[in-house]
Queue: 4 jobs
Job 1
Amino acid sequence: MTSTTSESVQGAPVDLIGGHYRVVRTLGKGGMGTVYEAENTWTKRHVAVKVMRPEVARDGELASRFMQEARATARLAHPNIIDVLDMGQDKELGALYIVEEFLSGHDLRVHMNVVGKIAPREALEIILPVMEALTEAHAHGIVHRDLKPDNIFLAETSRGIVPTLIDFGVAKIAPSESGEASLKTRAGMLMGTPSYMSPEQGRGEATLDGRADVWSLGVVLYEMLSGTRPHDALTPVGLIAQIIYQDPKPLAEVAPELPAGLSDAVMGALQRDITRRYPTMQAFHDALKSCDLDRGAVSSAPRIESPEESAVVLPTHRSWRSAWLALIAALGLGGALLLATLMRGGEPRDDPPSRPAATATALPRAPIAPPPVAPQPVVPVRVSAAPTAPHPAPPPAAVVTTRRAPPRAARARPASAVTVEAPPPLASEVTTGVPVIE
């Protein structure tokens, strides 16, 4: 809700925290305390203030963990890690508080609930900057231990959406740098979220390093790309048992449409054997960045050639077919020209309008030598005489002999030429594939 007064930490309304943070509204509540949007009365800057409940602060280890979050985050200066601006204890409320930068936007969990599965390119645009932030944290001996979509905030800024890592509340700080004892024993339930815990976290191992974060971020990316998690069970105990003893289902089987290299890179982070996992967050980052997102998953479907590829694959067949078609067309054209010349006698004539187009014109009165043409295949032609006029036996194939009165010997012709003689008064029916001559 939005108001100048907010719900109390001890029963009374909270108006001012730490003397100069005026409460604007409540952003969220949890088991350890409440988060407010507040305004710095000196600078007028809006900030987020986490206030620990006094009864929780009386537990020394939990109070130490709360302040550890502030120290861990304050030691890191990275554009993808939330800034810690202040910390302290309110004397009137008796409560510890942490002041952080106020972010506008929503967390990755909300985004995933809205869009469902996230495309590979967008997923990497979100996760790679977070990996760079974790590389910085690991270099300072800080292991986050609670990586999940809820702790990756998509901040809306003038530069666009900036993925920001938040909530180092259960972070593990190397004793050599923090000088603090481990808080593992009492904070077992606060060591992470079961769905995203690494196998070594589930076993309660004391010696955790950056490879625990590698696993957790691998689970986050697996869920972003597939819409499901690598392990699932009805109870937290059953879920942790699966994580410890069962290999996750390969991402390539859950989301076969993903690029094969991307699926393999994600599965490299989800190796139960820690020695087979990426040794550092930077190595995981580099593996993802080198993935070819334009290459799809390997498919067993037969390859279908495009028309252009088919033309290249079968040049000989198409060439021979084209050559034969051209030859047949040339021979047909030559034969048609020859026949037309013989029938028309070189003079243009109009066909009778009453005749169909398939009817040829009458033969010329005198034989005309045909123009030279390329050799053609010999086609047998049979000419049968009309019943009223006996006709001699037909000459050899490809030679047509016709008689006219008075009889006159025909000139000798080459084998491929056609000898034409005038027909008898009655018409002859030609039994070839050409139109009937009347």
Job 2
Amino acid sequence: MRKFKVGIIGATGMVGQRFVTLINNHPWFELACVAASSRSAGKTYEEAVNGRWMMAEPVPESVRNFKILSAESNIKEITGAVDFVFSAVDMKKDEIKALEEAYAKAECPVISNNSANRWAPDVPMIIPEINPEHAEIIPHQRNRLGTTRGFITAKSNCSIQSYMPPLHPLREKFGLDRTLICTYQAISGASKNFDTWPEMIENVIPYIGGEEEKSETEPHKIWGVISGNEIIPATSPAITTQCIRVAAEDGHLGAAFMSFKTKPDIDEIKQIWRDYKGYPQKQNLPSAPKQFLHYFEENDRPQTKLDCNLENGMAISLGRLRPDTQYDYKFICLSHNTIRGAAGGAVLTAELLCNEGYI
């Protein structure tokens, strides 16, 4: 299999940095160019991230001397050098929407980590283990854009990555009626660490702008169906959330409550979680966790510090499944927000799209 040439637009921010580390030594993908704002354009990558590199590992040797291109001014040069791009730009929503569409119209597929295009009716918002079939909308999107190769796919919000995966197989089998989730979200979700956000040390903030709306609505699009040239969102289950910023560096933890149309028993739920395999596991995609849903029997697991890096940050950790007085059951769930919830999930989506021939 030939290696696909990849570009990253928005390569200097936290999610862009994560993309750089994940693509380094990837068996299918080879980094061909990096792009950022005009402030960084012309610098080497090492110069641009000097003093603000936020990954645990050092800047990969292979990318240090890459010259940064302008994400806005060098579209023709970038699209001519790559098979597709990852988008992690930090701009106003309407600017992101226009920029990503410009890349797509230049016949360059865009796998976006941004929210700007998530609600376009023909833009698939894919979690590879849940709705890989939504890629089938891409030909309709290409018709709208007037492209042969170019299209946009969007990553869903990081907040839903911990609870949608365990709810999905249960919804399919038993009919999920309603769910309530409180998320406790790490500061890296705001592209910060404790050095850049010291106010978060020993602190909790009971509000994250726009997060609860995304957490309640995006699952319905992911659980939706393709009808004609659009994705029609599901109308159930009823979802309500609260999203809270906590003093953890990585890992979004959720406390989830769920009720069913047909109530399963606890052992049945655990077995379904253990056995569940999605498209990435069945196809053995390079970034796929071998065991997608891990259940811990210990009462004090999962924990952000111990478990968010499980299977290279791509697995979902679960625990404390038990009956509830208001809902049928409740449990704890955890995902790595900048890997599974951002760059890693986008890389897995790109693997799916390459495997299916869309790229």
Job 3
Amino acid sequence: MAVAERDFSIGGGLLAGALAYRLFVLLLPTALLLVSALGLYADASNESTSKAAKDAGLHGLIASQVASSASSRAAWIIFLLTLPALAYALAKLYRAVAVTHAIAWHGSGRGVRTTWQGVLVLGLALVLTLLSAELAGWARRSSGVGGVAVLAAYLAIVGMAWLFVSMKLPHGDVTWHALLPGAFLVGVGLLSVNAFNVYVTARMVDNQANTYGALGIAAALLFSLVLVGRVVVVSAELSASLAERSKSRRP
């Protein structure tokens, strides 16, 4: 109840939309970087970009679009130019997340600073999350104790990564123990979003790719990013609410 009241008072939906926008902006240079890297790999291995895209696990409309973009002769130039753009977008995302946490904890985002340590930790956390998503994908294709163990590892890795990120974000005068609920929620939330994308969003895009094309893919992507933004906002609100309740109970 306290989380819902805090979410209503600070405009959690608007904050989630702002985070989704920053995530989308980050994806643009990231996509260019990966596509150019795919083209460089195809040239180095003397393979076609279409085969390289399929080897990377891409299929259908997405594979054809990526292969077409990766065939550019200026892959090296694109790769080098996207590096500073990626760093800038990552710094802006960190600031957006920091302001969100400051609002959730203090009710105001004034005085929030962007530090290179925080940006670096956030970048590493995102990389670990992507690698953990690959582990979760392997778990879905497995059965038995192995799959369950991989899912547990996903929750542990993502939750721990977000705990370190949270320690670099505004969180009042509490210790890291007070940040554990929010970090755990991020792990569970991102796992749920990942499952939703695999079993719902991806199938809808594949089935309707010829009808909606790139517009349908963009809409599905934006919806997923809004869900991720919602998870981040609620995780900050949960930790802040529990910490406030704990302080109020102290004599």
Job 4
Amino acid sequence: MNKEQKREFTGVWIPKKIIEDKRLKPVDKILYAEIACFDVCYKKSSELMERCGIKKFAFNESCKRLVAYGYIKESRKFGKIHRNSTLKFKTPDDEQSGNQTDEQSGNQAVLLDNTLENTNIADKKSATKTPPEEKFNQKEYIDGMKKNKLPHIRFIGWYFEKRKSNFPTKESIQIETKRWLKDASFIVKYPQIKVSKAYELVRQKYPDEWNMSTIRKVIPEA
């Protein structure tokens, strides 16, 4: 029996962290807000696409970006995809009841102004006792990929460079690399000249939305 999923009250707010993330497209931020309305969102993909006014391809790409950058998690239960926000924030009810989730950390951020770094407040004290992690050097990492002995890894490194992708951490670029392994392995079977033609074709046809999947689709006819 299908019942309308009850929506948690969040108003129309979007976390500052997401608003200011230049890696995300406007539709990503709208989709996040829709998902974050629920403790766990089990709405069908078609319903979310309709709410956001987007097609399947754009929806899938949007979900992948939100997952890759750590803003939502996806899991499958009983044949349905469940999605939920990874950001923790206070609702107006929390404000009225005095449940200040950030009180111990001294964080007086505005509603929904949480960052990924502040989601685990309990670890703040222990974090100060350890030396800060080295800043991730994306260029160095991608240069290493382009020199890899495996052709599909070299191609993914080239793809990241052409797309001007931005990865804040090593973990985020590894997640994105796994995402493209199948497509890259398919593409590198073709001659370099055919790959180049397919790349130019998708850049002209889809200047803002081209990706490795679109290269794979057109390469047989390039």
